[in-house]
Amino acid sequence: MAESMSVKDLNLYYGDHQALKDITLDMPAGKVTAFIGPSGCGKSTLLRCLNRMNDRIEGCRVEGTVKLGDTDVYENYDVYELRRRVGMVFQKPNPFPLSIYDNVAYGPRHHGKPSKAELDQIVETTLTDVGLWDEVKDKLDHSGLSLSGGQAQRLCIARALAVNPGVLLMDEPTSALDPISTGLVEELAVKVAKEHTVIIVTHNMQQATRISTKCAFFYLGELVEAAPTAQLFSTPKDKRTEDYLTGRFG
Amino acid sequence: MTSAQETAVAGEKNAPNQSMPNADYTATAHKARVQDKVATGILAAIVGVIIVALVAIIVYILASGASKLVDVHFLTAKPEQFKAGGGIGPELFNSFYLLVLTLLISVPISLGAAIFLTQYAPQGRITNIAKTAIETLSSLPSIVVGLFGMLTFVLTLHWGFSILSGALALTMFNIPILVRVIQQALEAVPRDQRDAALALGLTRWEATMHVLVPAAMPAIVTGVVLSAGRVFGEAAALIYTAGQSAPVLSWSAPIWSLSNPLNVFRPAETLAVHIWKINSEGVVPDLSAVSAGTAAVLMVCILAFDIIARVAGRALERKLTAE
C-alpha cells in the first residue's frame, strides 16, 4: 500500500551549520515526487531525514516534524520498523556480497519467517517486477556483485521492494548508470509508484520531467518552490527556479 | 582537431611566433621523457637488487637444509642432546600447536576490537588513543613482549615456561597487527553497502555481521594467514615464555602429564627457538646440519602460509564477486 509522507517546519543542523531551513512539503501517496536543485542544496539531506538515515551522523540535529501517513517518524516510530516501511535505493548500486536470491530474500527473511515456498514466490515476483527475472533466473545462486551496474541497481530496487514498503526513496539512482539502464530504472520508478510512493532526488531536470508528478526545487537549504511538475517547469513562480531551470546556474 | 592542425591554424593567425613555443615544448617534452627513463631504470635496479637478495637467501637456506627437508626421521624424531642424528618432531608439533592457540585467542579479540573501532567507537578521543596504543604495541620489540610475558604469565601467575604463557605472549604480539589489518579491511568496504543494510531496517550489529564482515572476509583471511607466518617464525617472545625445552611427547600420556602434546602447561620449544638454542648453546656434533634443516623447514612452512594467504584470499574474492 502506497503511503504519503510530509514534512513540516523542518530545520536540520550539522553542528552550527544549518543545512535545511523551514521545509514544509507534502509527498502524495502513489505518485513520484522529485527533488531537484544544485549540489549541496540539501535535497539528499532531506531525503535521508525521511527514513532517519541522518540519525547516526554526529552533530546532526533535526527540528520539526516528518510524517509517514499520519504518524510522526521521529516520535512514534521504531527506527527499524520505519526503515522497513520506507525503503531506499542509493546512488551507486550496492548489492550485498550474497547471491542474487539472498539479496532479494534478505529483507523478507529478516522481518518475518516466510516459508521456502513463500520466499521463492517473493523473489520471483519482485525480480519480475523490476524486469530482472528473465536475465537472472538461471543464475540466482550467483553473487549479486557479479551483475552489471544497471542490473545491480535493479537488484537493489528489488531488494528494497521485497519487504513491500509504503514509500521508496531514491537518491540519484541513475547517476552511475548508462542511458539504457537509466531508461529502465526511470520506467520502473513510474511503475512501482502506484504501490510504493516514490520520492527521488535527481540532478537531471529532464529526468524529473519524465517521471515525476510533483517537483520540489531546493536552493541553499531552502525549499524555493514545489508544484506539479508540468506547472513548475512551464511557469515557475520564483526567479531562482526559473534561472536554474533555464540553465543560468547550477 | 589534431595537434598538427592546431599548429597550422595557429600558424596562419600568428605566423611570427609559431616556432618559439614549439621549440620550447619539444625541449621540455624531451627532458621529461629522459627523466622518466632514468627514473624507470633506477627503480627497476632497486627492485632487482631486492629480488636477487631475497631469492639468494631463500635458495641458500633451502639448499643448505635440502637433505634434512625430505628426511622423515629428522621431521619426526626427538632432538638429541649430545649425539648426532636428532630430529625436530616435537618442535614442529609445538610450533603449529602454539600457532593454533595464538590464533584462537587473538583472532576473536582483534575482530571485536576492529569492529568496535570502525563501527561503534565515536571518532575522536577514544579512537585516537586506541590507534596510538595499537601502533606503539605493534612496534614494540618482541624481546620486550617476551620479558613482559615472563614476568606476568611465567612468574606472577605461576604458569611456568608453558605453551599457555607462550600463546599469550604471541597474542600480545599478534593483536596489534591483526587489529590494523582487520580495521583496514572493514574500512575498505564501501560505506554504501553498510548504508544499504541499515536502510533495510537492520541494526548496526546485524549490518556488521551479515554484510560488512562477509564483504571484508577475503582481506581478513589474507591478513590472518600472513600474521600467522610472523607468529610461526617468532623466537624472541617465546624464549622466556614457552621455554627452550621440548619434553618427549606421547599421545598416550594423561592430559596433566608434561608428555601429553595437548597439555598447555608444559614447556614447548618451537622451530625458531630451536634454531636459536642449538646455535647459541648446542653441543651436538651435527649442529650446523640440524640448524640448517630446521631453518629450511621453517622457511617452507612460512612460504606455504604466504601461498595459502594469497590463494584463499583470491578464492574468497572470486566467490563473492563472480559466479
Blueprint (SSEs and pairs):
The complex is a heterodimer of chains A (250) and B (323).
Chain A: E1 5-14, E2 17-27, E3 32-36, H1 43-50, E4 60-68, E5 71-72, H2 79-85, E6 86-89, H3 100-111, H4 116-129, H5 133-136, H6 149-161, E7 167-171, H7 179-192, E8 197-201, H8 205-211, E9 214-219, E10 222-228, H9 229-234, H10 239-245
Parallel strand pairs in A: 3-8, 3-9, 6-7, 7-8
Antiparallel strand pairs in A: 1-2, 1-4, 4-5, 9-10
Chain B: H1 3-13, H2 19-69, H3 72-76, H4 89-120, H5 125-138, H6 142-156, H7 163-187, H8 191-199, H9 204-232, H10 236-239, H11 271-281, H12 287-321
Helix pairs in contact in B: 2-12, 4-7, 4-9, 5-7, 6-7, 7-9, 8-9, 9-12, 11-12
Explain the overall architecture.
The complex is a heterodimer of chains A (250) and B (323). Chain A has 250 residues and is α/β, with parallel strands linked by helices. Helices cover 37% and strands 26% of the residues of chain A. Chain A is built from 10 helices and 10 strands. A 6-stranded mixed beta sheet of chain A has the order 6-7-8-3-9-10, sandwiched between helices. A 4-stranded antiparallel beta sheet of chain A has the order 2-1-4-5, with helices on one face. The longest helix of chain A has 14 residues, at 116-129. Chain B is mainly alpha-helical and 323 residues long. Chain B has 2 domains: 16-63; 71-321, MetI-like fold (Orthogonal Bundle), CATH 1.10.3720.10. Residues 1-13 of chain B have low confidence and may be disordered. At the A-B interface, helix 2, helix 3 and helix 6 of A face helix 8, helix 9 and helix 12 of B.
Concise structural overview:
By secondary structure, chain A is an alpha/beta fold. Chain A contains ten helices and ten strands.
Q: Which assembly state applies to the chains in this document?
A: heterodimer
Q: What class would the helix/strand composition of chain A place it in?
A: alpha/beta
Query: Mean pLDDT of chain A, as a whole number?
Result: 90
- Helix percentage of chain A: 25-40%
Largest sheet of chain A: 6 strands, mixed
Predict the CATH topology of chain A.
Answer: Rossmann fold
CATH topology heading of the largest domain in chain B: MetI-like fold
Helices and strands of chain B, in order, run as HHHHHHHHHHHH
Largest interface (CB within 8 Å) is between: A-B, 32 and 24 residues
CATH superfamily of chain A: P-loop containing nucleotide triphosphate hydrolases
Can you tell me the CATH superfamily of the largest domain in chain B? MetI-like
Count every beta strand of chain A, where a strand is a DSSP E run of 2 or more residues: 10
| Overall structural domain count of chain A | 1
- What would CATH call the class of the largest domain in chain B? Mainly Alpha
Q: What is the N-to-C succession of helices and strands of chain A?
A: EEEHEEHEHHHHEHEHEEHH
The Cα radius of gyration of chain B reads: 28 Å
